[in-house]
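Exercise: predict the fold of this chain.
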Amino acid sequence: MAMDELTTLTGLEAQRLLSEGKITALELTEACLARIATDEPRVQAWAFLDPELARAQARRCDEARRLGRPQGPLHGIPVGVKDIIDTRDMPTENGTVLHAGRRPTRDAAVVERLRGAGAVVLGKTVTTELAVYHPGKTRNPHDPERTPGGSSSGSAAAVAAGMVPLAIGSQTNGSVIRPASYCGVFGFKPSHGLISRFGVLTQSPPLDHIGVFARTVEDLALVAEPLTGFDARDRDTRLEAPPHLLEVARQDWPLAPDLALVKSPVWDQTDDDLKAAFAELAEGLGPRIIEVDLPEAFKAAHGLHGLIMSVDLAQSFAAEYARGADQLSARLRGIIEDGRRALAIDYARALALVPALRDALDPLFARYDMIVTPATTGQPGGLENTGSPAFCTIWTLLGLPAVTLPLLTGADGMPIGVQLVGRFGDDARVLRTARWLVTTIAGLDSPTAA
């Protein structure tokens, strides 16, 4: 296959061709490196890339296949890893000059599992400053004058630009769902604690999630599944049978799902393009989707998230603030200082309210299979910031599984994502419903289809 063809392969297509011996891991890696060489000056998705290290990993994969050794589900497939996730053979600098030159001595749990599944860890993708809000260098592949979103900017942009079929990110507010929407790719934030965060920059333990990016729903399942499971080094992971994400995502639907269209308390922040696109989406789905209001208590959710996140950032970044506050962006300094001023009783009360809010959704999930809501407030804006995470905040606060699908476009031709949210632990069903929605929208004679 030509190199350009190789960079259009989905992860599952690459898996099949590699297992059949029709392509090699080195050929696929070389194709990704060639695409990066062409497009990186415009997109700037990578914080660290060592082509020879990538090639060496690919050669080992090919040698293992030649010798008949066991092959994992990601064997020979290149994957980008966000630069807040520790890698023993590459720098991890967390998007800040304060960590320039930092070289971890061991892999994060998610990287251990990527390597165990046979992946080629291609390189480290750009993050915003300490994975918060201050933009990095990455540009939106669809329009380099627009933001790719954040904080997993490079991961989303690299997948969108065809530089890599799969990538890993993280989310503490909207850092997977938002950049996936802005860059027009698929993004998945699993239930809190499904994937270990050991070896990943800590922002807020109650809010931090690992997530993934791909160009199909099935590929989200392919890359996420081997990353799941208990890890004693992350107290929020659970000792339970792992979900069969790919198997369930590929299943047919026994019944068409009933969907709840939730505009949430921040609907007034949306732009006209998004309102029009969601009106078309609802019209196309007809009786399958019903608009539903959240209970009154959810009006406080954004404030609760902000309080928890600011206090935890003040704790997590205390050393950075003490030794280099002047090297932090004004916005991050402000958030840390807000957290330092917060009262312990208010923080404790905020944490205590989260389970009650999650329980308050039980009647909704008893009637509807999934929540449908925007991924962002609209099309991506300029490069001065990474856009609003407002439509992700509630679901991150509650730790619910969420996936964004590139199904809509705005008047400027830029992507607008549709976010699906499920009950806690229903990760596989969220992906199966996402595939149903993609298939259904693709079959509609409607401009909402991407």
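Check your answer against the key: The CA atoms of residues 245 and 428 lie 5 Å apart.
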